Amino acid sequence: MKISLLTTDKKRYLNLLLLADEQESMIDRYLERGEMFVLEDNGVKAVCVVTDEGQGVCELKNIAVSPDSQRQGYGKRLINYLLDYYSGKYIQMIVGTGDVPSSIGFYTSCGFEYSHRIENFFIDNYDHLMVEEGVLLKDMVYLKQKMG
Question: What is the pTM of this model?
C-alpha cells in the first residue's frame, strides 16, 4: 500500500472525487488550493483533498474510496495517514458531511467528534437536491479532531 501527495493533474481523479462531492463546481472551489493524496494498493483505491483553513485548522474536504474497495479499511487508513502527516503543522482537522448515520459513524470511528452544523448548506450551495441513504441532505454537519 502506498499513499502519495499528488501535485499535478488532480482532475484525473474527478470520477472518484464526485463520489464524495457530486457537483464538479463545488470540487473546483477547493481542488487546486488543497493538497491531494492518492492511496494505491494494486491500483487506486482512495483519494482525498485537505485544505488549510487558517488558525491551525485543516479541513478534509473530500475523501472517496472506489466502490469496489469500500468497507475494507482504506478510508480509515487514509485518515490515519493524514492525521500523522499533518501532526505538528495543524492543531485540528475538521470535516463536513451530510447528516446520515453511516457518514457520521465513519468519522466518529476515526476519532472525530461533533463540532457544529451549517443549516441548509446542501440546499443553498448545490444546484440539485441530494439524497443519501434515503435522507435528503440539508445541513452540513462538521466534526473535529485535535491533532498532536
Answer: 0.93
